[in-house]
Design goal:
By secondary structure, this protein is an alpha/beta fold. The chain contains twelve helices and nine strands. A nine-stranded parallel sheet has the order 5-4-3-2-1-9-8-7-6, covered by helices on one side. Helix 4 packs parallel to helix 5.
């Protein structure tokens, strides 16, 4: 394996092709792969680190049948059920996170989409958050149409999040109530209205390494520059409750390949990273992770930002720089 040649090609702007990335995943010299990804990270992204927090602004009762999700009404789980939170509650969380030094705050709602009639209440929440502090507002509200997206944008939301979740070749195995094409339509509509896009997925749901590469290449083709990487957290009551966790090597190899395929993206530690040891988290930060969701997550406990701040800074990252990415 000519690592120097691969590095030169990536830094010269040549896309790492899918077949070659799959071949890299099979290398016995994993440390060389990790070092290559580290060097590409430093060259293309420097030491900037992006932080965001999320609030589960509406929980449960979702009619979609996503096999990984605790909030699906198709499965019996212990996820909380509640309607859209009040503006006061959302503002309280946003202000708290901003005081901790977190840069972004996302309103996340369950369900296939928020309806147009619900959007004025969401817009009010966003405006109240923006009045209360200078945290940057994001939203993740499903497969919104253009009118709802425009309402969000005009209220002050800067970033729209819509995960593609997995490879196109595997998606139908995990969800039958909507398609990956619908997700891509939402992403493209949001971008056309001026949103920055955040989109990634979950690994460890039974997909192959080749399918993870397939997902990474689709994200590159769509120009995604903020990519959340979630590790499946098997939720009791869901069809994936007995799925075995990935090995550390599988996780680190996936991160390395995502970095080489998407050299200019923020690769974001997201759900499930608490399953990893601190040593493995540090290694992931070295290999290519340069962003994170901090604080509590949707239906599982996340991590506290003070502890995370030390971890990220000890990995050589700066948390005080502008991390806005291109639209």
């Amino acid at each position: 394996m000519n690592w120097k040649e691969i590095k030169r090609e990536i830094l010269d702007g040549e896309p790492l092709e899918e077949a070659r990335a799959v071949a890299l995943a099979q290398t016995a010299d994993k440390e060389a792969l990790y070092e290559l990804a580290h060097e590409v990270t430093r060259h293309c992204m420097g030491r900037k680190f992006d932080t965001c927090s999320i609030i589960n602004a509406r929980s449960g009762n979702c009619g979609e049948d996503c096999k990984w999700c605790a909030q699906s009404a198709h499965y019996r789980t212990k996820a909380e059920l509640y309607p859209l939170l009040s503006a006061e509650e959302c503002v309280r969380h946003a202000v708290y996170n901003r005081r901790q030094g977190v840069g972004r705050f996302a309103l996340v709602t369950s369900g296939k989409r928020m309806s147009d009639r619900e959007m004025p209440a969401v817009a009010t929440i966003v405006r109240r958050v923006r009045e209360a502090c200078d945290i940057k507002c994001c939203a993740s509200m499903g497969l919104l149409g253009e009118e709802a997206l425009r309402t969000l944008r005009e209220s002050g939301v800067e970033n729209y999040h819509c995960n593609i979740e997995t490879a196109p070749s595997y998606f139908k195995t995990l969800c039958t109530t909507h398609t990956i094409e619908q997700k891509l339509e939402t992403i493209r509509a949001a971008r056309s209205l001026g949103f920055r896009i955040c989109s990634g997925g979950i690994i460890g749901m039974g997909e192959t390494m080749a399918q993870r590469v397939e997902m990474a290449c689709l994200l590159r083709r769509e120009g995604i520059l903020s990519i959340p990487l979630n590790l499946l957290q098997p939720i009791p009551g869901t069809p994936l409750e007995n799925r075995k966790p990935l090995t550390d090597e599988e996780v680190l190899t996936t991160i390395a390949l995502f970095r080489l395929i998407n050299p200019h993206a923020y690769l974001r530690f997201s759900g499930g990273r608490g399953q990893l040891s601190e040593a493995t988290q540090r290694k992931a930060l070295y290999v290519g992770i340069n962003a994170a969701i901090v604080g509590d997550l949707l239906t599982t406990v996340g991590s506290r930002f003070e502890r995370d701040r030390v971890l990220f800074q000890e990995a050589g990252y700066s948390l005080n720089e502008n991390t806005d990415w291109a639209i």
